[in-house]
C-alpha cells in the first residue's frame, strides 16, 4: 500500500512509491496498490481481480469466518492486460483505489488468471482503514 503519488523513496525496478505503514490505510483518501506477477510468459493475456471485503481484526476467528461464508464483498475490480515485463520475468501493476471506505478491518484478495491456460494465482492480506 502506498500514497497516491509515485515519487517516494521506495524503489522496485522502475517504480518509486511513498509507502504507507504496514497494513494501514487512511480513511477517505485514495491509495495505491502495488503488486507483482511472476511466471507469466511475455505477451500473455491475463485478468486481475481485486476484491476487498469487510472483515474483523485478523486472527483465527476471522480466518474461520471468512472460510465459512464471511461478510459480503464490498468492492470488486477487474482488469485485463497483456504481460509486459518491468524487470526480467516480472509484471508490475499499480492500481489507484479511490473508493471511500469506513474505518475498520478489510481483507484484500488479488487473483490473477492466465487467460490462455486458465492457471490462477491468488494473494491475500488483511489491512486496517484508520
Number of strands: 9
> What structural class do helix, strand and pairing data support?
mainly beta
Order of helices and strands: EEEEEHEEEE
* Major beta-sheet overview: 5 strands, mixed
Q: Uncertain segments of ≥5 residues (pLDDT<50)?
A: none
Distance between the termini: 14 Å
Computed over alpha carbons, the radius of gyration is: 15 Å
Mean pLDDT: 87
Question: How much helix is in the residues?
Answer: under 10%
Biggest sheet strand line-up = 3-9-8-5-6
- Tally of separate helices: 1
Which overall shape is indicated by the principal axes computed on the Cα atoms? globular
The share of residues in extended strands comes to over 45%
Walk me through the structure.
The protein is mostly beta strands. Helices cover 6% and strands 51% of the residues. The chain is built from one helix and nine strands, in the order βββββαββββ. It has one helix at residues 60-67, and strands spanning 10-12, 15-17, 24-25, 31-38, 45-55, 73-82, 90-97, 104-114, 120-129. A five-stranded mixed sheet has the order 3-9-8-5-6, with no helix packed on it. A hairpin with a 5-residue loop joins strand 8 and strand 9. It starts with 9 loop residues before the first strand and ends with a strand. The model has no long low-confidence stretch (mean pLDDT 87).
